[in-house]
UniProtKB/TrEMBL annotation:
Belongs to the UTP25 family. It holds the Pfam family UTP25_NTPase-like. It comes from Schizosaccharomyces osmophilus. Residues 28-77 are annotated as: Disordered. Signal peptide: none annotated. One of its GO terms (molecular function) is U3 snoRNA binding. Its main location: nucleus. Residues 37-60 have a biased composition (Basic and acidic residues). One of its GO terms (cellular component) is small-subunit processome. This is U3 small nucleolar RNA-associated protein 25. It is found in: Nucleus, Nucleolus.
Amino acid sequence: MAGFGNINEMSKDELAGKSYEALLYLMNSKKKRKPEKKSESEDLPKHKEKKNKVIEKLDEPDTNEEENETNEENELIDALVREDLDNLDEKENETSQDPFNRHFDSENMQAISEAISCVKAMNLSQSSEETKLGISQIFTPDTEEKVSYNCIPKSDNVSDLGLKQRILEAYKSQKPSGHLTTMQMEIAKHMFNYQDVFFTNMNIKSHKLISSLYALHALNHVFKTRDRILKNSARLSQNPELEFRDQGYTRPKVLVLLPTRNSCYEFINTLISYSGADQVANRNRFEDDFSIEKEVISEKKPEDFRYLFAGNTDDMFRIGIKFTRKTVKLFSQFYNSDIIVASPLGLRLAIGNKGDKKRDLDFLSSIEVSIIDQADSLYMQNWEHIEAIFDEINSLPKEAHDCDFSRVRPWYLDQQAKYMRQTVLFSQYNALDINSFFSHYMLNVAGKIKFRTLNRGILNQLGYKIKQTYVRVSSDSIIKLPDARFSYFVNSVLPQLVKSPQGGILVYVPSYFDFVRIRNHMDDEAISYSAISEYSSTSDLTRARTLFQQGKTKIILYTERAHHFRRFDIRGVKAVVMYAPPTNPQYYVELARMPMRSITEGKLDQDAAKCRILFSKYDSISLEGIVGFQRVPNMCHGRHEVFEFV
């Protein structure tokens, strides 16, 4: 055996069977660590070069600083040795009832193994309870031995979250009352007990409360992890015969995925304020790279649009954060970081594609807490990036990275880390792909919770009467649905639109692939139309809107992502056809209101305003946010196929 390279030649099954012996060899190996790799972004496409000048500096090691930090840790270990080690945990309230200990330091490996087997087989027991946030659906492994995680918080005071003392003091210095809201309490019951959390009813007001809560949780996990390692190192310095399993392969423990640099800027500032740190390294560089003077966005734009696109809206970034006793270091090298904050695009480019020779993703091997915030916005960027990242998290590393394998937790060695990882996801609304993520990637043995809000719908928020006709498209399977929907549209809907004497018809298409399909069909049939998509240039946007407003084109095609990034209120709209229900219920309100301008300008009778929506039984998630949960069962599965609302 000659190092980690030979281990990689084994299959995963062989490695799992021989992992202890192989890793023992590595633990005793005296080989020097390989030189640090170059910047993670060195192989990015040329068109990204300018955008990534800052990112290229992320992995530049600072030898002197690393040496100073190592000396600081050694001094801390010496200080701990001089203390009464047996009483250290009690001082920090780290008892056996602490969820951190119960989840990550459980010695009952048989129970964990049984729970993992149940999760793999999707053998989960389900329970529901009614809370002030709606219906909470809880899924736990259906094992004989049930493990209770609900031990905190016991009240609405932040002191009951089991926070490290330095975090608690920093938080209370800003918010002396220390009280949690009802929403924070309900989420904290599961998040701080290391269960997976799926919350899809976030709004602007609740988002700040939620981000504050998961910032506390991320810091708490990092500090408890590092303090545990330091304390155990102090114990080992007194008695080398002791054995502690208290870490993973690499240092990063928390991954936070966010949509824009501005959201990253605000989150990291929250982290810093709660960390109790005396110094922040690279603060000026952080301000320069992530903060810009906020442009004034028109008050005519919706409030959620102004909130999301405030500040620096660049969606390509990644940054490592390292914590010591006194300092927060920003732009730390990934392998020396405790928390990695990134956009899905930025992290995906750092990882590289499968087959790339310089691919590096070992820094994701030991993630124990993953947080996805504003998933609704990430969904509009490219949800495939999220899935690609989570396909790679907690994979076996390709190199040793100076790991002390004698202290690696057993479920890492058994390649079961993804079942111990906690994943929390927050979104403004639910969607088919987001819901699928909950089922396929949130695999925590501690269980997972879905907060399901009973949506009453938004049909009464339009502000005027418009005839809304819902037509159900039948399909035997979700795979056949795109063809069935396209066939119905081009054979039944489009001919009516072409023959209609009334122009001003907006056709809203959520999927870009459906948009291209319809556009190509209309080109083949020589049908006059205008088109706006997320890829349209500014000149094309202006030309399309002008031709449509002047009545020179009867139909305008409009994609969902174009609406997300632009939020146009298109003039000249007299009728709306939705190829499928909008993913965001708020978009439905904005689209259905567009004919109001024509009515106000006297170009359309209110009785003539119409809105037609094509849907299928597979659109139930999107449909519920629009028409309400009570109507969905009958609309999706009833014998009638046409439904009208006014």
